[in-house]
Amino acid sequence: MLELRSITAGYARNAPVVRDVSLTVAPGESVGLLGPSGCGKSTLARVAALLHRPDAGTLLLDGEPVRRWRHHAPREKRTAFGVVFQQARLSADPRLPLTDLIAEPLRATGRGAEVPGRIAELAPVVGLTPDLLTRRPHEVSDGQLQRACLARALVLRPRMLVCDEMTAMLDASTAAALVAAVEDYRAATGAALLAVGHDRTLLRRWCDRTVQWDSLT
Ligand SMILES: Nc1ncnc2c1ncn2[C@@H]1O[C@H](COP(=O)(O)OP(=O)(O)OP(=O)(O)O)[C@@H](O)[C@H]1O
């Protein structure tokens, strides 16, 4: 259970971009967050995934208040989240072959021994063939790179996925494949989802419920 209570957050003192916003995602639930460009959806998604410290408000994870964010957050809380951003190229180290990109969270948490097994499991789930796994980000398409970013988000088996405009840059068939991969993962694990976007039709089809940004305050 993820509860955001009266969250205020931003990038400069006295100029919050998210003001007094509350949102709950129940265990296993999928929630679509809709709102106009620039309203603060990504900022709230980053707070929810413990990547951005709010200026005020409370975040409860399974009833426990989170007090530390980013690398200061306890590992078991940080690794509860898998996050996929809109712009795969900004979130991928250009030096890493896709296989190492996907493996990053395992290596960072001292679980390097699991890399071969998890790559073998995840590559077909996200639709990456072995020839793609050895290529670097500049040698693959945006859609192929986003497939790798989704695999990276799943590699630690998170109980909560945060997908921030995951499909916005992709063609319809790649978008459908990635949504299906997320849903298969959720069906198998019971993970919850917070999906952020502007595409009302997609989010309504994808999620148990959608919430409009204006209704959160
Ligand atoms: N790193 C940053 N530094 C300063 N301001 C930022 C930063 N990131 C976002 N902002 C500003 O915060 C506001 C909210 O941005 P955010 O990305 O959260 O909105 P959004 O609803 O996700 O928009 P979009 O749908 O266009 O992605 C915007 O006015 C944006 O310019």
Automatic annotation (TrEMBL):
<keyword id="KW-0813">Transport</keyword>
<dbReference type="GO" id="GO:0055085">
    <property type="term" value="P:transmembrane transport"/>
</dbReference>
<dbReference type="InterPro" id="IPR003439">
    <property type="entry name" value="ABC_transporter-like_ATP-bd"/>
</dbReference>
<keyword id="KW-0067">ATP-binding</keyword>
<protein>
    <submittedName>
        <fullName>Peptide/nickel transport system ATP-binding protein</fullName>
    </submittedName>
</protein>
<dbReference type="InterPro" id="IPR050319">
    <property type="entry name" value="ABC_transp_ATP-bind"/>
</dbReference>
<feature type="domain" description="ABC transporter">
    <location>
        <begin position="2"/>
        <end position="216"/>
    </location>
</feature>
<keyword id="KW-0547">Nucleotide-binding</keyword>
<dbReference type="GO" id="GO:0005524">
    <property type="term" value="F:ATP binding"/>
</dbReference>
<dbReference type="GO" id="GO:0016887">
    <property type="term" value="F:ATP hydrolysis activity"/>
</dbReference>
<dbReference type="Pfam" id="PF00005">
    <property type="entry name" value="ABC_tran"/>
</dbReference>
<dbReference type="InterPro" id="IPR003593">
    <property type="entry name" value="AAA+_ATPase"/>
</dbReference>
<dbReference type="InterPro" id="IPR027417">
    <property type="entry name" value="P-loop_NTPase"/>
</dbReference>
